[in-house]
Amino acid sequence: MATQTTAEHRSLTFLQVAIALQTAAIFFQAVTAGVLLSSSHGEVLHGVGARVMYGASMLYVLAAILAWRPGGGSPRPILYASGFLVLASAQVVLGITHMPSLHVPLGVLMFGLSVLALALAVDGRGASSSISRSGRP
User: Fold this and answer.
1) What is the value of pTM for the model shown?
2) Which is higher by pLDDT, 73 or 60?
3) Residue-wise burial string across 64-83, b where 16 or more C-beta atoms lie within 10 A, e elsewhere
4) What are phi and psi of 41, to 5 degrees?
């Protein structure tokens, strides 16, 4: 039983790290968007940050799946992570097509939702944390 609890704790910690990485990547994108307006280096930094942010969103999906499997709990965190991946995909398309009127507000929304997901995961009120406590949905 202790081994199962340890595995669940590791999955939950991995989920928290994945959400934190995603949040940090989105914040980096906001910073590099400001640099983009004032410097020639901003475009390169923003492009690299976009790739990192998209990768972090994919890592969040993987972490949500791994956190769900040991406890067999609610798949809700997987839905949240998949939603972020869809938003990240839309964000990439909007950035490539140079549509800042939609790209910027979507980025702000994504940052707010990511901070909220991180706060819930760290606080222990998120759907994923109920898996580690009870072992069931």
Assistant:
1) 0.79
2) 60
3) bbbbbebbebeebbbebbbe
4) -80, -15
CA distance 100 to 91: 10
Q: Which tokens is 118 given?
A: 């991180």
Taking the C-alpha atoms of residue 67 and residue 132, their distance in angstroms, rounded to an integer, is 9
| Residue 44 token pair | 């390169």
**Tokens, residue 73:** 């709990």
d(CA 94, CA 124): 34
Type of residue at 12? L
The phi, psi pair for 39, rounded to 5°, reads -150, 155
Taking only the tens place, the pLDDT of each residue in 62-77 is 999 988 876 666 788 8
Average pLDDT, the chain: 84
Residue type, 74: S
Judge contact between 111 and 91, C-beta under 8 A. Answer: no
